[in-house]
Design brief:
It contains 3 helices and 11 strands, in the order βββββββββββααα. It is α+β, with helices and mostly antiparallel strands. It has one domain: FomD-like (FomD barrel-like fold). A 7-stranded mixed β-barrel has the order 1-2-3-6-7-8-10. The protein starts with 8 loop residues before the first strand and ends with a helix. This is Nucleoside triphosphate/diphosphate phosphatase.
């Protein structure tokens, strides 16, 4: 499987449960890479959607991926604070080509004041039926929504007060 090295640019590939590509982030700089954890940073990176449309991210972001959790967390650095976008997803794999995971539709948006909203529940239910998510996956995903909410409330992991600042400083130093 391999481990990306600090400073290495990697792509991020998001898939759907049916195996089809969902979205590709063209370049993210590895800030920390291990067998179980990848933290990356990007700014104004090209994103390609499954239908071929492209767009460029608007702000610097720090991304957190772990092999033990069914979610990933993106901290977006804006003028008025850090906004988080949390994807309920499979744990990642890194195959030397890209960091890859399955996106399971449910998302949590967290605001700078740490209030949050669970998003896309209707999309999740539709895809759960259409793609026939196994019951065990459904249960794992719901448990990880609860775990993620606890992390938000406890300000754990990427939600800790200095987490994004520390990793963004490292990103800026690596880009110099």
């Amino acid at each position: 499987m391999g481990v990306p090295t600090e400073g290495e640019p990697i792509q991020i590939h998001s898939y759907k449960h049916n195996g089809y590509i969902h979205r590709i982030w063209d370049e993210t700089t590895v800030l920390k890479g291990s067998e179980t954890l990848i933290i990356g940073g990007n700014d104004r990176t090209l994103v390609t959607e499954s239908d071929g449309r492209t767009w460029i991210t608007r702000e610097p972001a720090i991304a957190y991926f772990h092999t033990q959790y069914w979610f990933n967390i993106i901290g977006m650095i804006r003028e008025d604070g850090v906004y988080y976008y949390c994807n309920i997803s499979s744990p990642f794999i890194y195959d030397g080509e890209a960091l890859k995971y399955i996106d399971y539709d449910l998302d949590i948006k967290v605001y700078p004041d740490m209030t949050f909203h669970l998003l896309d529940e209707d999309e999740y239910e539709r895809h759960r039926r259409e793609m026939k998510y196994p019951e065990v996956i459904d249960q794992i995903l719901k448990q990880n929504v609860e775990k993620l909410i606890k992390w938000i409330k406890q300000r754990k992991g990427p939600f800790a007060p200095d987490f994004i600042d520390i990793w963004y400083d490292k990103y800026l130093n690596l880009k110099r």
